[in-house]
Write a structure and sequence with these properties.
There is one protein chain. With 201 residues, the protein is of the alpha/beta class. It has a single domain (4-192), classed as Rossmann fold, CATH 3.40.50. Helices cover 32% and strands 23% of the residues. It has 6 helices and 7 strands; from the N terminus they run H-E-H-E-H-E-H-E-H-E-H-E-E. It has helices at 8-17, 35-44, 57-69, 86-89, 115-128, 146-158, and strands at 25-28, 49-54, 76-80, 94-100, 129-139, 165-170, 181-187. A 7-stranded mixed beta sheet has the order 3-2-1-4-5-7-6, sandwiched between helices. The longest helix has 14 residues, at 115-128.
């Protein structure tokens, strides 16, 4: 994967890495080929936990094989379910949740993440997020349905109470309008480590 400022996925990982340590809990809400899952597993170590979600069994097979090749499978739970069901499977506080929206590269392009389930997942993820934790979303306005999903996510994130959440958007301003966009949400709160205050967006 390309690094530097040319990749929204790389930038998401750089910002998420600041909030992860050995023993952290993290969620890959869209496992896909497993790149973010492997990144999270490396950061949290054997004492940590990663939950990787995907509705396609093919994606989880790819992710599982990637993890095994990297000797990282032990700290990851693969979940064949839509990411809107994250709160059914994740019971701990999460330090980070990552989304790479769209469709599985090399898979069926008609199977895509959708605004309604992505917003439902985001709402649940905010409730799971630890104070200081971060949610990254890489959105792709260029694919069919991608513009509508990006606009729904942006509207949702922009409406979050600034007392409890810090939200940034990273655009590639010298690239085409359909270039990927990164949105990063950090749970803050005037109550510091009191997590109950920011339970509901």
């Amino acid at each position: 994967m390309a690094g530097g400022l040319g990749s929204a996925v790389h930038l998401a990982q750089v910002l998420v890495a600041e909030r992860l340590k050995r023993g952290s809990v993290a969620v890959d809400a869209t496992a896909g080929k497993g790149n973010d899952t492997v990144f999270l597993a490396r950061r949290v170590g054997r004492s940590g936990k990663v939950y990787a979600f995907d509705i396609q069994a093919e994606a989880l097979v790819r992710t599982g094989e990637f993890l095994k090749r990297q000797n990282l499978a032990g700290s990851v739970e693969l979940v064949c379910a839509g990411h809107e069901r994250v709160a059914e499977y994740v019971r701990e506080r999460a330090d980070a949740v990552m989304y790479n929206l769209g469709y599985l590269p090399g898979g069926d392009p008609s199977v895509v993440t959708r605004p309604e389930t992505t917003i439902a997942s985001l709402t649940a993820a905010l409730g799971l997020l630890r104070s200081g934790g971060r949610i990254s979303l890489v959105s792709y306005p260029g694919h069919p349905g991608g513009r509508e999903e990006y606009e729904a996510v942006e509207k949702f994130a922009a409406a979050l109470d600034s007392l409890y959440y810090r939200v940034i958007r990273v655009n590639f301003i010298n690239r085409a309008v359909h270039a990927p966009v990164l949105i990063m949400i950090e749970k803050a709160g005037v109550f510091g480590e009191s997590e109950e205050a920011a339970q509901n967006p």
